[in-house]
Structures are given as structure tokens and as C-alpha cells.
Hints:
The chain is an alpha/beta fold. The protein has 11 helices and 14 strands. The chain is elongated. The two termini are 22 Å apart.
Amino acid sequence: MQQNRAVIRLDHIRENAQTLRASAGVRLCAVVKADAYGHGAAEVARALRGVADCFAVALVDEGAKLRLACPSDILVLVPALTEEEAVRGIAAGLIFTVGDEEDFALLSRAAEKLGKTARCHIKVNTGMNRFGFDECGFSAFCARARSGNVRAEGIYSHFYMPEDVSATQRQYERFCAFAERAERSFGTLIKHIAATGGILADKRYALDMVRPGIGLYGYLPGGFAGALPLKRAMRVYASAVCSRKYDGGGAGYGAYGGEKGDVMSAVRCGYADGFFRKGGIGNINSLCMDAFLYPQKLEKDEEVCVLSDADERAAVNGTISYEVLVNAGKRAVKIYVG
């Protein structure tokens, strides 16, 4: 097989979700955006039935596709940009994010067009400065946001540095003030601010619901190494194409510092498969777009594990495990076990 194989342990993902839920002690919203961080959103959602109360994606398009495999509530984390998006999401029964008055008005127009009620969670900016209402004008919005076709069901925010105790506490206090004001207008809302890092930072931050993402797949955010016994869910394998003895020249797109007669094999995996050229694979720096050279003899179609530890790959490439996982799963055939 020419494509890489991503072998994904669904039982590990389910066990990780159970561990995170037990640690938080509240409802769990499983984040499966970016195709479940490269692990396959539909299959992960099926595996988490009975463990996750709901799911979160980034985009309306992701949510509409997931709806075909998932009857549970699906929260879209990025506000809809167009009326067309809003109409599609309402028709699919998605829950929207409202981060400003324009988002609310857009949902109201789309819901009126369909003759349906749009559901939403209100996003507030407590310090990440990405999406969400600022404090200025929020009280006025709450006072006048009256629409029979838009129903606010939750309010949330996001910690930008959960490993920083003082910054996280400040955000939490700001969020509680936002939530108190919102509930005076909209009634009781589902309150959530903690992703994986927030779950580990302090049990107080769990509130009504938590939104673990990276933790589901066996990894922890920076500053929380070893905080929970999670299991890695993905390993990626590639196949050897041929082998030869080195007889001069380079190795891939670069010089070779070895000896004449060295054995090397071409493996069908490169940066088009989501692996970074810098640092290569396993410290092998001969990465091309679709292949790399492995310093051992391999038989044709013999498998090589090219990813088992995303943290290790991230460290070599100066990035984080999130980026490694979403890239490595893009071009691979996903094989589910467990």
C-alpha cells in the first residue's frame, strides 16, 4: 500500500476520556475538531458514545459532516461567517458560538428564514483575545438580546496559559463575572472554560462542563507532563520501496556524510504526508516530499513506524504535539483497533 497507515486505538481514546471525565467530575464535551486531531472525527465520536455528553468542532462544515455519524449535541467553536453557513448549521441541529452582536443577528436572520430556533453558546473574551465578547458593551448586549428564534444555552471562554496559576485565576474570575451577568438575562446557562489544561490546573475550573481535546488522544499540554496516566492513541507506519548500497552522491536533497557501501532504503513517506522537513523522521534528515532514506536494509513493502510519540517529534521540530498529530493523519489510511 502506497499510503501511510495510521493505526488508531479507539479503546485508548475511550479510556482517556473516562480518565479526564473522572478527574473533572462534570459533563464532558469531547473536542473532535480537525478530524479529531487527525484521528478521525466520526470514528472517535462513535467510540465515545456513553462517555462524552456532547462534541465540539471548529467549523460548521465539520459539524454538518459529523452529524451524519453522531446524534449527540455538536458545538461549533468558530462563529458562523455567512448566512449560508448559519442556515446549514441550523438545519443540521448544530449549536453555534456567538462572540459578538453581529453573530447573534446573523443567527437570528438565518433562523427566521428557516422558521426554526437556533441554539448557541455565548463566547466571552477573558484574555485569549481570539473570539468572544469584551466586557465593554456586554451588559448592553445581554439587556437587548431578545430573539424568539435564538436560544442561548451556554457561556464559555478559554484559558490561554492554564499552566500559569495567576493568569488562569484572573481569567476564571473574569469569566464568573461574565456568566453572572449573562444568567440574569438568559437564565441558567451551561458554564465551561476548561480544556485539558484547565482540567489539570484546578478542579474549581471544571464548572458545569469541560472540553478536553489533546488529552483524549493521549497527550498533555505544556506544563502538565505526567499529570494524568493517558494512553497514546495513534501510531503511523510507512512502507519501504527499495534498498541500495551507497555509491556516491547525496541522500535525498542534501549531502551524505557516510561511507561508500553503506546500505540505505527508500521509504514512502515525506513532508506531503504531514512530516516536517526540519528534523526529518527519527532524526533522519533526508526527507523529500514523498519519501525519505532510512539507514538500514528493508525489504520491499516492509513497514517502518514513522510516528509513535508526537511530543518527541514536536520537540525536534520546535512545535507542539497538536501540530504533529493533525498533520500526520492527513494523508494516511486510518485503521481502527480496540
